[in-house]
Specification:
about 90 residues
């Protein structure tokens, strides 16, 4: 009977980030803080507007959240593509 070893062949998120190429790391570590600041400022605005008019806020602001998530998606996918391109060379 074979014994299964936990995490054999699997890497943690920290190990994967540590193995990124230089270009991918620059993109990831410069894009993520900018996206986080945008998300926090958006959240702050939504909280202020919820006090004034909750119904209008629920109608207007959720579609604006797509821009922040698109920036996050582009940052992560861009870093992955940079890493793949660098490691193929």
């Amino acid at each position: 009977m074979k014994k299964k070893r936990p995490n054999q062949g699997k890497k943690s998120l920290i190990q994967c980030v540590n193995e990124l190429s230089r270009e991918a790391s620059i993109l990831l570590f410069s894009g993520l803080p900018i996206t986080l600041v945008a998300l926090l400022s958006f959240y702050s605005t939504v909280l202020r507007e919820m006090e004034r008019d909750p119904e209008l806020t629920r109608l207007i602001y959720p579609p604006m959240l797509e821009y922040i998530f698109m920036a996050l998606t582009l940052t992560v996918i861009g870093a992955i593509l940079f890493d793949i391109a660098d490691k193929k060379e």
